[in-house]
Amino acid sequence: MKASLCKCRILETVAADRGGAKLVLRPNNKNAKMDFTNKSVRLLLAMLATLFVLSSCGGSGNSGPTPTTGTVALLFTDRPTDEFSAIKLDVVEAILIGGNGVAGQQVLFRGSEPIDLLDLTNYSEPIVFGEVEAGIYTKLRLVIDNLELVPNDGGPSQYPALPANGRIDLLDPRGIEVLPGRTLLVELDMEANKALHIVGAGNSGRYQFRPIVKATFTDGDAGVLPLKLARLEGTASDVDGNGDFTLCDIETPDSCVGVSTDSSTSIFGSDGTPTGFGTLMNGDTVVVIGSYTVSGGITLNAVVLEIGGNASQVRGQVVSSPANEQFLVLRSGGEEIVVELQQGTRFYDENGELDASAIAVGADVEVEGVMPPKADAADPDLIRAALVFVVPQDDEQAAGTIIEPLDAATRSFGLTGMGGGDICVRVDADADILLVDIAASEVTMGTFADLALGQVVELFGVMSDCFDANEVIVDLNAGP
User: Fold this and answer.
1) How far is CA 156 from the centre of its chain?
2) Is 277 helix (H, G, I), strand (E, B) or coil?
3) How would residue 85 be classed by pLDDT, with cut points 50, 70 and 90?
4) What is the 3-state secondary structure (H, E, C) of 377-392?
């Protein structure tokens, strides 16, 4: 039997704009905190409406969601950037605004707590699971505050001004549809490497924040979440003989998520070496990396389970090919560390699971595992790897003005570059096209049909005979 998402207990209710009550919960994260006394809520949380909680925890399946409501799940992630060691901000609100068949606003999140976007580079983290009225909404509104950029070079932090007082409206011309009794998954990518734009020159150059947030909408009831892996940390409880348990927050143990393991799950002990599920005990501190299913209740399916609370992460560049189940990584500070592969070490990139052949000299990686104590201070640093994430290479970039020929049949157009010179551009069939209105602080997910002559665009992709773009960002406020 799958472990349930939550214990059937009401932790706190907050009034929704339409008079409903929402339950505040949060899946666990190693840096997350929750303070119910002042009603501040860490971004890495889950919110469920009372009706959804009762249906999820009923056990018999007879008390499902009412026909007039559906669930919205917001997952937050970010793209990597090498310029900063931290990108901090406060998330203040997440609100669905009504449209066809829906009136008013549905508050998914309201609070004010700092987060670091760079902690979300390779994993998606749940923000909200919230019960709302079914219908087609016109926009999802985010409100952020207190943006701080911490440079890698140790220089002073920068504090770019936020457009529209931190409000960012995300629109989809098809509407944002919440179906009765189903779960709409929304992955929000802040795309910090594209939202931060330098203005000025020389030492006077400063960063401007542009509201470039990409929203991907998925019907969660269609199956396993096809997006980034999730990484959660907490305390195990309700451990059973079927490989299921409940993962609860260390500081707020009533905030829980159900976890399921199977024969494919890689399980590691406190020393970072392989072990079995039978070694997991109630009260153990664990890290779970996996993906969600939402059909029949929300469950985190574990790809990796680390028992013991000793997990660390190391980022750097591979500087030696794997040999004898080891390879070297050069960390950003210039120190080398030995990565020791284990039986069951998993390999991933942004597109899914890989094998050990993905570890090549020059690849950027993030290694999850345990750094055991040294027998001798002179011994090299070592991490026993539970999971190796291969970080994607940065896209090439181009920018300019769309010119003839603009051809919808071949999804291509001409581009006059900012510095002069023309190139041809092909837009991938699955490319993201973002229409960014900086003045209104709105981002609309567009299609090729929205591209027009004279538009100023930024392109991300690969240059070959033409520029093959996997993302097009249109600046609606800029002239040729």
Assistant:
1) 27
2) helix
3) confident
4) CCCCCEEEEEEEEEEC
Give, in order, the Cα–Cα distances in Å from 332 to each of 275, 329, 387. 31, 10, 19
Rg (alpha carbons) of the chain, rounded to whole number: 23
User: Could you tell me where the DSSP H helices lie in 129-261?
Assistant: 192-195
Task: Give one DSSP letter per residue of 322-386, joined into a string.
Answer: -BTTEEEEEETTS-EEEEEEEEEEEEEETTEEE-GGG--TT-EEEEEEE-PPPSSTTSPPEEEEE
284 and 177 share one domain:
no
Token pair for residue 401?
Answer: 């003005």
Tokens at residue 28, please?
A: 């666990």
Residue closest to 95 by CA, chosen among 161, 22, 38, 32: 22
Sign, CA dihedral 273-277-283-286, equals positive
Residue 137 domain-assigned (yes or no): yes
> Which amino acid is present at 327?
F
- pTM of the shown model: 0.69
Q: Residue 273 sits in a domain of what CATH number? A: 2.40.50.140
Check whether residue 106 and residue 26 sit in a common domain. Answer: yes
Q: What share of the chain is helix, strand, coil (3-state, %, to 5)?
A: 5, 55, 40
- For residue range 158-214, list pLDDT tens digits in order: 898 888 989 999 988 888 888 888 878 787 887 777 888 766 544 546 788 888 888
432: left (phi over 0), alpha (psi -120 to 50) or beta: beta
Asked if residues 87 and 149 have their Cβ atoms less than 8 Å apart, the reply is: yes
Q: What are phi and psi for residue 342, nearest 5 degrees?
A: -115, 165
Per DSSP, the three-state class of 130 is strand
User: What would the DSSP string read from start to end of 17-81?
Assistant: TTS-EEEEE----TT--EETTTTEE-SS-EEEEHHHHHHHH-SSS-S---TTEEEEEEEEE----
Q: What is 397-458 written as a DSSP string? A: EEEEEEEEEEETTTTEEEEEETTS-EEEEEEEEEEEEEEEETTTTEEEEE-GGG--TT-EEE
Q: Is residue 71 included in any domain, yes or no? A: yes
Q: Do 79 and 185 reside in the same domain of the chain?
A: yes
Q: Are 82 and 40 in contact (CB under 8 A)?
A: no
Query: What is the rounded distance in angstroms from the CA atom of residue 442 to the CA atom of residue 213?
Result: 9
The 10s digit of each residue's pLDDT in 133-142 is: 888 898 999 8
Per DSSP, the three-state class of 164 is: helix
Please give the structure tokens belonging to residue 286.
Answer: 């664990």
Residue type, position 412, single letter: S
> String of b and e for 277-306 (b: at least 16 CB within 10 Å)?
beebeeebbbbbbbbbbbeebbbbbbbbbb
β-strand partners of 369: 312, 385
